[in-house]
Amino acid sequence: MSDNPCHKITMDSHDEPLEFAAQSPSLLDTLEQANIEVAYQCREGFCGACRAKLDEGEVSYNQEPLAFVRDGEILLCCTKPLTDIKLTLL
Q: Where in this chain does the record put each 2Fe-2S ferredoxin-type domain (predicted)?
């Protein structure tokens, strides 16, 4: 049993799911490590450039974002999954 649980990240634009390790700072960092190009600017939840649609699962914010986020969307730069998730990159 691991102290650092991994959650799966599934995206319709990629065939294989990714694993999010608990020590990763954000979903954005995990996607970048997998060489998945994601638009971003501030990396702190101010600009909203890294918005994605959360199709399934639950996430938590490292800090509450200041950027406007629509219902069903998340900011990848300041979010971690609480469960396995499914995303659509915008």
A: 7-90
